[in-house]
Amino acid sequence: MLGVVLLAVPAGGALWYEDAHDEAVEQALLGRLERADDLVAAGGRQSFGAARSDYGTALGVYRDLAVHHTGSRAARRVPDSLRTYYTTVGAAYGHQEYCDAIEPLKYLRTVPDTMPREQLGSLAGWPDDRLATALYECGARHLASGDTDWVNRFGDLLDTFPRSAAAAKVVPAVDAAVATAEKAVGGDEPCAAVEKLRDLDTRITDLSRSAGDTGGRLAKAASRAGRSGDAGGYACGVDQYKDGDFDAAQKTMEQFAAGHKHDRNRARAQKTAIAAEVAQTLPAAGRKLPTLASGGSISVTVKNDSPDDITVLYTGPVTGSFTLKGCGRCKAYTLADTVFSTFKPCNDSSKNYPQRTISLPAGTTYFVHKPNGDSTATPASDTAKLRPGYIYTECAYSTQRLGSGY
Prior knowledge:
- The chain has 14 helices and eight strands.
- The chain is an alpha+beta fold.
- Helix 12 runs antiparallel to helix 13, helix 12 runs parallel beside helix 14 (266-281) and helix 13 packs antiparallel against helix 14 (266-281).
- It is rod-shaped, with a radius of gyration of 41 Å.
- The strands form two sheets. A four-stranded mixed sheet has the order 4-1-7-8, with no helix packed on it. Strands 3-2-5-6 form a four-stranded antiparallel sheet, covered by helices on one side.
């Protein structure tokens, strides 16, 4: 007997299977998105350097979802994830940690190179103003603190965003730094201020060479810093002198006098250089800054009983210097000559000693006689307490070293 069985399959079964499969895919894609979001959140709790690799991984997931799964629910959520991504990567800027924000913001400017623009929308330009501001603020802080990195930050700003509001602040910031250093020349640390001005001159000049339209204004600021630094040399030399650094004071004042022939302080600088040199041999000579006083009522004659040309330096109520030629018929005395009581340099009437007479006030004058040229004789010194009613003679002579007496 033949039988027939009728099998019935629900018409919607295939559709149910497809829906289940699609939902599984959606869930898988959403899972990928969630894991990428978690990487970003975790990265926000680390430094940018430590999190950069994870940021790159998350961005790769966002890109894949946006490009290859455009109709998915996960893809539709990518723009929101990207907004969180930008604010997380750039969080240092929001915390006003401008120097730390620079590298993350530069990184965010590269995102449009790989992510479709339609996914980014306004995020594509999100880092620009922030980066310009961060470069300026970081540079300004370094400029104020003395960290030389300000040149790199301002240079980067002027090169990348030359017409930004932040770039417009660079020249005023540099001018203000020069003005601050100029003011500091009159303060407690003039030498440090002079060094600051000279450093500013060099670094602003470097910045001006690659600053485009801003270069001319920066060059003017550099020139101003250089001039002020040179002019501040006088105040620096005075400070060195008062601190007892006579060697440095001498060099500073000699440089100042040589470079500022028409400066009102040049004559005082020359006097201070002389006094500083004397004080290196006779420290008591440096107790007071020399004045511009000249002349006096007491006659002091300095004779040279030495074969060497010498320079005579003196300071006290009056400061000055002069040179005397070597004595042609004179020779260096032996050490034995000087131990006898009959030893009297500058006392041979047959010799024509080079000499010079100066007039000085009463009081203590410090003398240093030093040989000129290639002589190996060492300088000699004398502290003379001058009193009215006397005529004084200083005598320079050579033994194994240059000596003096009167």
